[in-house]
Amino acid sequence: MSRRGPRPVNLRLRRILVMLPWLMDRGTVSTNDMAAHFGLSVDELIADLTLASLCGVSEDPNDLIDLWVDEDEVHFGLPKYFERPLRLTRPEAFALVVSAKAASGLPGATRDSALAGAIAKIAAVIGDDSLSGVDVEIDVPDSVAGLSAATTAAEVLAIDYWSPTTAEITQRRVTPLEVFADGPHWYVRAFDHGVDAERTFRVDRIESWSTTGDIDRRSVAPRRPWFTDSPDVTTATLVVEAGWTWVLEQYPLVSTESRADGSVEVRLVVTSERWLRRLLLRLGTHAQLVEPTDWVVLGLDTARLVRERYTRT
Prior knowledge:
Order of helices and strands: HEHHEEHHHHEEEEEEEEHEH
């Protein structure tokens, strides 16, 4: 079953910045309770805690954060290097406050948390003037407000949409059902009158849109997993070197499995051969396509084609 798209690393790190002070106040908590508090699934929580457990002031295991998960409980201990005051430079303190401000807007963060108190203390030391012009916000496309208003009003829209699969702009007549953010992108879930079915459109690929004057009120069902509304999808299996899985972070994955040699077997949804060719070029020799067998040499063929074009020019 497909799951929602992977969360960006920068978002995960900001959330960890909220989690650690929260854990410090509690010591030991249930994985279910913590996942519910931060709006995550248990699997997502464990993945983030695993990332946090590898953080420290050096690669020495003694300097890593004292954090582990035992069955259905999370345990946290104060690292020894926190027993003495940290000496931050002014740029380090400024960067820390800005990151913490961004993290304070995530689910699970509260105004009276330890993180909020730390922000206030550091900000007082470096001076209010240093932060007076800093306003930390998550990027929201200009069109989101208008699209959200059209969704509320049940207006039928005419949109010009660029498709990465065909590299063409098509005209669509849609009824927006929901505007939402997932990972680094904003999307519009809509009923596409041309195909008589739901489709999901990335906001930054909508070249233009306008209201048609028609109203189309529809019941909105819960959002379905990614690509269940796409008629032409294939599942591919890649074996990726451990240090190169970051290339896949922005794409919805079906499953991942670590292998004995340190590589990772990844199954992901492929919407077109064109898209898969671009992905294989990015991964280069650091990944091998194993399924479907018809596409095993696709990466090599694409690389040869690119080299031939550069040779001719």
